[in-house]
Description:
The complex is a heterodimer of chains A (201) and B (853).
Chain A: E1 3-8, H1 17-26, E2 35-44, E3 47-56, H2 64-68, E4 74-76, E5 82-84, H3 94-98, E6 105-106, H4 121-126, E7 135-136, H5 142-145, H6 152-156, E8 162-166, H7 173-181, E9 196-199
Parallel strand pairs in A: 1-9
Antiparallel strand pairs in A: 1-8, 2-3, 4-5, 6-7
Chain B: E1 4-10, E2 19-25, E3 28-34, H1 47-50, H2 52-56, E4 66-68, E5 81-83, H3 86-103, E6 108-112, H4 119-131, H5 146-156, E7 161-163, E8 170-174, H6 186-198, E9 202-206, H7 212-215, E10 219-221, H8 228-242, H9 248-254, E11 260-261, E12 277-280, E13 285-288, E14 303-305, E15 308-312, H10 313-320, H11 326-333, H12 337-350, E16 356-359, E17 362-365, E18 369-373, H13 383-396, E19 406-408, E20 427-428, E21 434-435, H14 473-478, E22 491-495, H15 499-502, H16 506-516, E23 519-524, E24 536-539, E25 562-566, H17 581-592, H18 595-606, H19 622-634, H20 640-646, E26 648-652, H21 655-658, H22 674-689, H23 709-712, E27 720-725, H24 739-747, E28 754-757, H25 758-763, E29 771-776, E30 782-790, E31 797-801, E32 845-851
Parallel strand pairs in B: 6-22, 8-9, 8-18, 9-10, 22-23, 23-24, 27-31, 28-30
Antiparallel strand pairs in B: 1-2, 2-3, 4-5, 4-24, 7-19, 11-15, 12-13, 14-15, 16-17, 20-21, 25-26, 27-32, 28-31, 29-30, 29-32
Helix pairs in contact in B: 3-17, 4-17, 4-18, 5-13, 8-11, 8-12, 8-13, 11-12
Amino acid sequence: MRYGMVIDLKKCIGCYGCHIACKAENCTPPGILWSRVLFYESGHYPNVKKMHIPLLCMHCAEPPCEKVCPTGATVKRSDGIVTVDSTKCMGCMSCVVACPYRARSSYSKEKEYFLGQGLTPYEEVGYQLHHTGVVEKCDFCLSRIEKGLEPACVTACLAKARYFGDLDDPSSEVSQLIRNWGGFQMYPELGTDPSVYYLPP
Amino acid sequence: MQEDVWIETTCSVCFNDCAIRVHRVDGRVVKIEGNPDCPNSRGGICAKGASGIMLLYDPDRVNVPLKRTNPEKGIGVDPKWVEISWDEALDIITEKLKKIRADDPRKLLGGTTVILIPGPYGVHSSFGEAFGTPNFQVGGISHCGGALHIITGLMYGAWALMVDPNYVNYYLNFGCPTGFGAGYGVVSMATKMADARRRGMKHVVIEPWMGMPGINSDEWIPIRPGTDAALVLAMVNLLLNEYGIYDVERIKHYTNGPYLVGVDGHYVRDKETQKPLMWDVVDSKAKTYDDPTIQDVAIEGSYSVDDVKATPAFSLLKEHVKKYTPEMASQITTVPAETIRRLAKEFGEAARIGSTIVLEGKELPYRPVAVGYFKGPLAHKHATLIVMSLNILQEIVGATNTPGGSLGMSSRSFGYPETGQPSYSPSAGADGLLQAGYWFNPPGPWPLKREAKKPERIGAQDIIPTAHGTSLAARVILEPEKYKLAYKPEMWIRMGGNFMMSSFDPTIWEKAIKEMGAFIVSLSLFLDESTELADIVLPDACYLERLDIQADWQSSFSPVDEWTYHIHQPVVEPMFQRRPAHEVYLELAERLGILGDMYRAMNKRFNFKEPYTLDPAKKYTWEEIVDCWTKGYFGPEHGLEWFREHGLIHWPKKVEEVYWRPFVNGRTPIYFEHFLAVGEQIEKLKKEHGIPGFETADFQPLPDWKPCPSYEEKHPEYDLYGIYYRMPFQTFTSTYNNPWLDEVSRMDPYIYNIAINTGTAKKKGINNGDWVIIESSGTGHKVEGRATLSEAIHPEVVAYCSGGGHWSKNLSIASQRGKGVNPEWLMPLGWDYLDGVSLNLDTCIKVKLTRKV
């Protein structure tokens, strides 16, 4: 079993729904994004292309973050999900530097979404899931997977552009999509072997 | 024991009303997701919907009733609010309402946001009707698709149109965002249009700025703003006169193309029955359109009927468009002539005229092309003519209301199988023309039941029988003698909406409000830019805090696959002293002794069905009212309690509902003959009473491209078209205080900034990130923002998102510097900027762009 995701760039419309769905699921503090959307424009008028590229932790099979972690807080599980144990993390930030996908983040001081106006009832409970000074990131919504659900970003996607499943199973939907539509990884030359594949636009 | 529940309800961050489920743990809302049981959205939810938690808990929300103590009103003037009790607030309001009702009910104005359609909007409107004022929709909805609704009402029997995502192969899209995060059916259409793109649908987008549609296109074609009609008419010309690609059978049997027209432009009518005539080519004589002996009709040629020269309307259309050569259109639009030719060819061939498809055992015409449009092309002075052209393009290839084409938004319903409710269908109305079965805002566009009248309404739309909304109220308030208004408004009840930021130059409303001196009551979520002009503010409950009648507002539906109706129930009790608007209106109605009248109005507006109509002699709880509505539609077993448990009801759409064209009599107009008489009526009325403005030149039966004021503005300094666009992660101005949506907006390169073509910017010495000033040629006002240079924008255009530039400090996030501009400062309100047929606002403006030094 190797959990993986496929993001169809032809279907993705760039609505940022995944960005907010992740934030709402995980109550990530201001400025912290476990799921985000990159945008770029190329070409010259009138032959121009714009693109949205959703990003998240790639849950690499060869995770550079795990290699540099001095405390063993970062661990790649047998099902492929790369997790961080915040009780073991000492906040050295080596993994933040090592990750080529900028998937990891940390914050030193709790900040409210409504500056100067206290925490909303939602933040009061949500921030209890987080700790300052340690590194956090996407965990493929482990608590949802354990309930038989899919990650929040996959469920929320308006265009149904995100798929989740077992990359080790050749008959799974994700495996078929990768095969049939030429799924590719990001920065394959770095040898990280991400578990997130993209379908070309 | 921890409470941990999921509650099914409906989102209202925009008006699409998607089905959602909300996670509540120990009384706190911790997550909002799409309802996975909804077959159309399948659990999807957009950024706005998912961010609703932050609307519920926003500390800037109004939580207590407030009263103004500073008599001076103005933009940025502190009202010096004091807190009062609900009782005191309602006592003050009731006393004033009683006096107005006894004196002249017209002196009560009302207004809402479009976001609260259908439930609260319907309650608000019902109160106005019960009170007896014709002025209960003022100051909101100025920028909506007025012209579109008129024409789709006539041609589709529906409020709007949507592309058939299941079968369309070639989608020629003039910037419509349906399927790309906004528009109608946000979630369902995003899912389906993504599938369509994956299966190979070709998506060609024509828009001046590459917005959401253009980003997700196979080909983006930039166009000069306000010129779409020229391009479209050139395509019609090519199809009819050069390529010979048009659906003869469709035109003969389902349009008024064969109707005979005299030299005066009117139908040639049968002397006895007054019915329009067609020419039977087999019997060589004129017959009424419904004559059963007709064998084959002419759509071209010239005939003589009782010595009167009579030409089929289609022939007039064909002749009329000849002047729109690709070269002429290219000059106007800046789209190359070869591109126009290519598009017409591609479109015509992709229409596969003559082909059929079998669905559910029925053979149907198969025309897998569609023309998409909404606000963008019609945000210009000649909006109605523009919409006529866009719709005629698809009508002549037969690509409407059949598989693959443009579909009327829920034109036809057979109802829930167990009850047959709601049931409505387009049919043949007066002159055999299509009549809508259901119209959201009665009376419908056909037959035209209103005549041009001297203005009684504050918006003066009585003068224009074809207009249903109007932006004119501010003008009429400022110049009542000019518009012959016989009274002065004294009170204005507003439910949501931010008219100061979403109409036109806000100083015009500021003046009008000072001049009017009316007592303003605002049912508001925030102390926004419009609420700061109120006298009393009532803290409104948001959608997560109330139960609504989830009435028949087809916007949230998918045009295909399944009908869905979902419950709108509260997830939490209203926090602090917030109260839902319906409670306020019903209590006021009771205090005024008009509760029974309000029930009568609600019966009509919400289509309560026997035996569950509201009895004006009784008094109901709100739960009972919602239960009645629900049972009326879905039967005694499916009342409110059933919906609380199941969340939603759904059933498959039938082929005869979705692709209804072959099953319904009633001809689609491609020649708008009745416009002539309406124009004449208005001119007569104007002369009789000396009323200014209200130009009638556009009441013509066939469309033309005509330049809007921006096109004609030749001042060398005001050399750029200022236009606005919308993004899928903000709803108009209303969501800018949401910190999650703010976070997304700060990441997007454009939404908080001003997009300028790279080449154009360089010529003006502007670099990426420079602070720039935009000055309007129409109002003289300026807005400022950060420049984002882009190649994906026409060189003559600057583009900005529509909802930014908040100035109310009570919106702590929205009012921060650098969060977009409010384009309305640039927009004048004048006859040059109004469409004569629909009173739609022209929202593009020529501007001067300079770097701030």
